[in-house]
């Protein structure tokens, strides 16, 4: 029998641990999770931003993130971004209207954004919403308004389990295995457990019950995908488990099969088990290597599976069943006729009604338009709205005889159910507008590029979408690594002057065989990048192979064409070129239309304030 550890040994161990751990661990150890809320309310009641001691702001900004409050960047001192949380993108009747009214009344900046005006909300890549220009003293009233309709901000940021992603239409469209109960349990029991609030880093969970792969399990820390397995002579529907996926830092990883199949009733235990395992054993020293994908790579699947079985799961886990990855079509680079690749357009619900997915370019929605969208959802549907991983909203429960009226509404001219291929495929992160580590402006520039591509690029009639994703830096919150054409913000010299620039990559996507973009051009000045993309797209239109196997002439998708084309050829096609594209944010780097401070501020956030921070 071993001797008990003395209190002196424990103290020595803790001292060594804190000496090795990243400084943020000490900050979180002092106060984190649910207890942070009372401090936010206290600061808000005593003067807001000014009530936070200047020498403690970095610590409090780190803690605030758990409750969805991110201090904005240099020159925007005292303003915060607020991120909401709603598992798998479900906004119940009344919730979108409340969010929109908060955006209208509280999320307004000192001047208008020249592209988007003032007072708007951003739809995120994890099926949620972000609001900007929030004053700390307004947070109690905002929380009261949102929480009165069931919307909250808890666990939407910081080192914790983030908004859980899932099939946006779970419970509405056909599913092979029902995912709603598991999503709800993860939300209420797992994310609601304050004992697990302080994770080594942010942690992403996804659950997909459909067979098209729309929860994108391959880029999540743990993903549950539909599968079937024969157990005791019975074909049982359930989930296969993958772990260790993620993007960012130019080190993307596709999630690895854990070789585990679980019945729906056992899936929660396995998900919780892996969260607890990572919480206990995950590294807390090097934040660039603390993500679960590096942990999974370090431990390996066999050790993780055995540890889960021995220490965390109280039933025998089965080896993986048959999955449906060969049929995945969501952002998989496959032809439109193969199946669903996003949630834009009119689709069938399993109850005979319809859903209508709208295209919101770069995910930015003015507050007044969001109010109108909520009204249309109530008038033509049940009032419920779903949000997708592609920064778009979906109106659900629309009867056949209401479809024509909804599609004719003026709001759908701005956010169409049948957008151009470029608008349909566009995504963009926050960029330098609010993010302290971004290198380029993103949303305004992407909006301009979409209009320019619509006017200047002719695509074959059968090309329904070109997925262009734009991230302002290598954190890749805009998911550039999974795009047909991925853009990452950089800086470059042109004519002796430092300017905003892009790295341009091609050939990314998820699906059966997730692939990440290959870089074909680097540090292309921002005024030459649209020309480079246009040249590449024109080469695609001219050189792609045509199929002779169908009655309707169809050719390769962009991803198929990239896979079949030599890298040197792609580099040549993607030739930078100055054009008539107007690039007004070439040199100011941190945006000219907001009153930024001339000098840096110690109050500035040191981490991204972006779509998936």
UniProtKB/TrEMBL annotation:
Record domain Nitrite/sulphite reductase 4Fe-4S: where: 158-314, 424-574
An annotated Gene Ontology molecular function: 4 iron, 4 sulfur cluster binding
Alphabetic keyword roster: 4Fe-4S, Heme, Iron, Iron-sulfur, Metal-binding, Oxidoreductase
SUPFAM superfamilies in the record: Nitrite and sulphite reductase 4Fe-4S domain-like, Nitrite/Sulfite reductase N-terminal domain-like
Keyword Iron: yes
Keyword Acyltransferase among UniProt keywords: no
Gene3D superfamilies referenced in this protein's UniProt entry, alphabetically: 3.90.480.20, Sulfite Reductase Hemoprotein, domain 1
Transmembrane feature ranges: none
Ranges for domain Nitrite/Sulfite reductase ferredoxin-like: 76-148, 348-410
Similarity section: Belongs to the nitrite and sulfite reductase 4Fe-4S domain family.
Protein name: Nitrite and sulfite reductase 4Fe-4S region
Organism per entry: Natrialba asiatica (strain ATCC 700177 / DSM 12278 / JCM 9576 / FERM P-10747 / NBRC 102637 / 172P1)
High-level lineage: Archaea, Methanobacteriati, Methanobacteriota, Stenosarchaea group, Halobacteria
């Amino acid at each position: 029998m071993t001797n008990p550890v003395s209190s002196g040994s424990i103290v020595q161990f803790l001292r060594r641990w804190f000496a090795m751990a990243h400084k943020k661990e000490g900050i979180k150890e002092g106060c984190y999770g649910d207890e942070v809320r009372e401090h936010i309310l206290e600061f808000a009641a005593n003067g807001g931003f000014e009530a936070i001691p200047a020498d403690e702001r970095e610590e409090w900004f780190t803690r605030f993130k758990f409750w969805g409050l991110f201090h904005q960047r240099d020159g925007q001192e005292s303003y915060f971004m607020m991120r909401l949380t709603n598992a798998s993108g479900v906004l119940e009747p009344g919730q979108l209207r409340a969010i929109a009214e908060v955006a209208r009344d509280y999320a307004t900046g000192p001047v208008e954004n020249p592209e988007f005006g003032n007072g708007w909300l951003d739809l995120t890549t994890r099926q949620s919403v972000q609001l900007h220009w929030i004053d700390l003293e307004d947070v109690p009233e905002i929380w009261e308004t949102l929480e009165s309709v069931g919307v909250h901000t808890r666990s939407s940021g910081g080192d914790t389990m983030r908004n859980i992603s899932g099939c946006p239409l779970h419970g509405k469209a056909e599913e092979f295995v029902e995912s709603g109960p598991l999503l709800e349990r993860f939300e209420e029991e797992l994310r609601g457990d304050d004992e697990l609030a302080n994770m080594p880093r942010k942690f992403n969970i996804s659950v997909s019950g459909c067979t098209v792969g729309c929860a994108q399990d391959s880029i999540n820390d743990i993903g549950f995908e539909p599968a079937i397995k024969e157990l005791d002579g019975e074909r049982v529907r359930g989930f296969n488990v993958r772990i260790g996926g993620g993007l960012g830092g130019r080190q993307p990883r596709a999630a690895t099969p854990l070789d585990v199949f679980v019945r729906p009733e056992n899936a929660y235990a396995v998900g919780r088990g892996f969260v607890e395992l990572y919480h206990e054993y995950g590294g807390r020293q090097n934040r660039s290597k603390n993500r679960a994908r590096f942990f999974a790579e370090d431990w390996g699947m066999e050790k993780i599976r055995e540890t889960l079985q021995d220490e965390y799961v109280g039933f025998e886990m089965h080896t993986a069943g048959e999955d449906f990855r060969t049929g995945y079509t969501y952002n998989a680079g496959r032809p439109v006729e193969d199946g669903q690749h996003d949630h834009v357009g009119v689709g069938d619900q399993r109850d005979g009604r319809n859903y209508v997915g709208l295209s919101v370019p770069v995910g930015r929605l003015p507050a007044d338009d969001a109010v109108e969208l909520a009204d249309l959802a109530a008038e033509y549907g049940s009032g419920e709205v779903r949000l997708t991983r592609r920064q778009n909203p979906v109106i659900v429960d629309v009867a056949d005889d209401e479809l024509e009226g909804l599609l004719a509404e003026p709001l759908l001219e701005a956010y169409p159910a049948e957008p151009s291929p470029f608008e349909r495929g566009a995504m963009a992160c926050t960029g330098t507008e609010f993010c302290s580590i971004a290198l380029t402006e993103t949303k305004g520039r992407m909006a301009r590029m979409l209009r320019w591509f619509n006017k200047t690029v002719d695509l074959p009639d059968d090309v329904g979408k070109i997925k262009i994703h734009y991230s302002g830096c290598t954190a890749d919150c805009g998911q550039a690594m999974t795009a047909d054409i991925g853009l990452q913000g950089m800086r470059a010299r042109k004519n002796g002057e430092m300017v905003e620039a892009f790295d341009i990559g091609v050939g990314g996507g998820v699906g059966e065989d997730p692939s990440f973009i290959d870089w074909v051009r680097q540090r292309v000045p921002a005024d030459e990048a649209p020309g480079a993309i246009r040249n590449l797209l024109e080469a695609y239109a001219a050189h792609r192979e045509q199929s002779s196997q169908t009655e309707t002439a169809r050719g390769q998708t962009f991803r198929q064409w990239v896979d079949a084309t030599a890298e040197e050829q792609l580099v040549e096609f993607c030739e930078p070129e100055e054009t008539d594209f107007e690039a007004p944010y070439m040199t100011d780097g941190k945006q000219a239309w907001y009153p930024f401070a001339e000098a840096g501020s110690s109050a500035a956030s040191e981490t991204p304030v972006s779509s998936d921070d």
